[in-house]
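Team,

Forwarding the record for the chain on the shared tracking sheet. I've put the sequence and predicted structure together so nobody has to dig through attachments.
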Amino acid sequence: MNSTHLNCFECPRCGTKMRTQDSRPHDAYGFSTVRRRKVCGSCGFRVSTVEVHAAVAHTLFAEDAE
């Protein structure tokens, strides 16, 4: 996955691409995550995301599937 794909988040309000306003490491869930704040340049809508590494996500969702 490349960095261009990571920034390809569309605004749920107007559909414009959102830009990352802030990105920082986050460890509140017992494993490493990245917390990002994104903002729409068109309508000003804001959203926060918490992203986990693919290997951690696979482990978490595999437990839910059982």
